[in-house]
Amino acid sequence: MIGRRASVASRALACRRGSAAVEMALVTPIFLVLACGAVDLGNYFLSEHAMLKGVRDGARYASRRYPVNCAAVTNDTSAVAVATQNLVRTNTVDGTGNVRLNGWTSNSTIVVSVACNTDTTYRGGIYTASSAGVPVVSVTATLPYPSLFKAFGITKTTINLNATAQAAVVGA
Q1: 132 vs 118: CA distance, rounded Å
Q2: Contact (CB, 8 A) for 51 and 161
Q3: Domain range for residue 128?
């Protein structure tokens, strides 16, 4: 009787049926985390690229709309700044276009500023005789990134997308 129990146990341990299912059950969670992480990372870089493109477009637009006289303004709220914010967020000056990123519903995340660069190495062209300096417009945007992991409750960490672009003002 003891020999018979030993042979049943040894046959059960030697049996390989079902080992592939057990291995798959162990590997599947790791594979899913890696696959979801790759998708989320790709979406992060796509979102960052869209935001950076919008900020660059806004800086180029604003550099052609501000006057060439150098007047420093922090967090501008003028009509030019609002049009620039609309362009950054929706790709249209009036703000009626589709948003570049889902959830980007407010212009308050976009800051338009003008600074006077007084370094003489930048003076040339229309700014050769300027004593006030060269006006440089800066457009900065910050937006929370809607992570796939955060949506599923895996993490509570908030990651922000940040983008900044500058352009010398060439005149209205």
Answers
A1: 7
A2: yes
A3: 2-168
